[in-house]
Write a structure and sequence with these properties.
- By secondary structure, the chain is α/β, with parallel strands linked by helices.
- It is about 40% helix and about 25% strand.
- The protein has 7 helices and 9 strands; from the N terminus they run βαβββαββαβαβααβα.
- The chain has helices at about 15-25, 60-65, 85-95, 105-115, 130-140, 145-160, 175-190, and strands spanning about 5-10, 30-35, 35-40, 55, 70-75, 80-85, 100, 120-125, 165-170.
- It has a 5-stranded parallel beta sheet with strand order 2-7-1-8-9.
- It binds adenosine-5'-diphosphate and guanosine-5'-monophosphate.
Length: about 190
């Protein structure tokens, strides 16, 4: 059996990467399995523990980090940590699937370094900052404070775009999903 590849998606929060990922996962020929990250933030909207994230207390998160259970972790926003558990990577790739992960820009470059040629890092760009703000507000799951934190980080995140293997603009959702699927398909077909 061919070894599973690692597909990393990063974008400023609100760009639409979770929406794109959920559509890609439905495309059976891509054989994707989602890497469920752990986070110290609280669930948002209809999010469920063990589906979108493993929601951990800050204390539990730090304990697992100290135990070496993460491939990588970052304090993405002040006071809020996110990380990829080694057990998740094993669960998905062990089942013969390509692992798709949604991580912040620093996590993406660390994972790329860790997995080398097995990993592809895709940066999803919003069409503009105005549209990004509109999407964050239309999502109506974040508090005003959380929207401000996310927008404040967008320029920093955009400055990493050139360090990714490839970039996709999420203007029209159908077009962006199709383009991302094509990129993954050709990467997964490589030896
Ligand atoms: P992210 O995972 O990058 O934080 P989401 O997938 O939660 O972003 O998308 C943020 C909001 O923008 C959601 O309400 C989603 O439905 C919407 N959205 C996603 N892609 C598009 C698009 N191409 N055009 C308009 N709205 C979009
Ligand atoms: P959100 O709170 O909007 O779900 O995610 C916030 C940010 O955390 C996004 O940039 C997302 O990509 C990032 N993130 C989610 N999981 C991980 C992870 O496991 N590791 C890292 N480094 N970042 C993550």
């Amino acid at each position: 059996m061919k070894e599973g590849k690692i597909i990393i998606l990063s974008a400023p929060s609100g760009t639409g990467k979770s929406t794109i990922i959920s559509r890609l996962i439905e495309m059976e020929d891509l054989a994707l399995g989602f890497s469920i990250s752990a986070t110290s933030r609280s669930p948002r909207g209809a999010e469920q523990h063990g589906r979108e994230y493993y929601f951990l207390s800050e204390e539990e998160f730090k304990k697992r980090a100290a135990n070496g259970e993460f491939v990588e972790w970052e304090e993405v926003y002040p006071g809020t940590c996110y990380g990829t558990l080694l057990s998740e990577v094993k669960r998905v790739t062990g089942a013969g699937r390509n692992l798709i992960m949604d991580v912040d820009v620093k996590g993406a470059l660390n994972i790329k370094k860790f997995f080398g040629a097995k990993a592809l890092a895709i940066f999803v760009m919003p069409p503009s900052k105005e549209e990004l703000e509109k999407r964050l507000r239309a999502r109506s799951t974040d508090t005003e404070e959380s929207i401000i934190k996310r927008l404040a980080k967008a320029d920093f995140e955009m400055s990493f775009a050139d360090r990714f293997d490839t970039r996709v603009v999420n203007d029209d959702l159908e077009v962006a999903t199709r383009r991302t699927a094509e990129i993954i398909r050709s990467f997964a077909a490589k030896d």
